[in-house]
Design brief:
Blueprint: E1 4-8, E2 13-18, H1 32-52, E3 56-67, E4 75-85, E5 89-97, E6 103-115, E7 119-120, E8 123-124
Antiparallel strand pairs: 1-2, 2-4, 3-6, 4-5, 5-6, 7-8
Length: about 130
């Protein structure tokens, strides 16, 4: 995707990406999957940083992304913040804006917190430090 993290903490994640032709759908605008993936990336990074402090990891349960304005080129900025951080679940919200500050997409992602040693898709989850 070409994502560059500007800042990543357990309270806020900011990342940016430059739009290229590889991000376009057939009409020449950024594909909705790019927006959903960008939102998933920034929210899951924040949720993972928050969970890591408790020796947990996280997996996404749902991603609800709304496409607000079409964009063809330029730089996108995604900002994610937690709405709720519980012992077993977290909910994070993200907004994607263009270089002019116009809202392009918004989304909300819900995560399940997994304890170290929990099985996921047939394998044991290991909590790996995030750098």
């Amino acid at each position: 995707m070409g994502l560059h993290f500007v800042r990543a903490t357990a309270d806020e994640v900011i990342a940016e990406m430059e739009i290229g032709e590889q991000h376009h759908q057939p009409y020449g605008i950024v594909h909705g999957g790019v927006h959903a993936g960008l939102i998933e990336a920034v929210t899951s990074t924040g949720a993972a940083l928050s969970a890591q402090a408790r020796g947990q990891s996280v997996v996404g349960l749902e991603n609800n992304t709304s496409f607000l304005n079409a964009v063809r080129e330029g730089k996108l900025l995604a900002t994610a913040r937690p709405l709720m951080r519980g012992r077993r679940t977290q909910v994070w919200e993200a907004t994607v804006t263009d270089a002019a500050g116009r809202s392009i997409a918004s989304g909300r992602v819900r995560f399940l917190a997994l304890e170290a040693g929990a099985a996921l898709a047939g394998e044991v989850v290991s909590v790996k430090p995030i750098r």
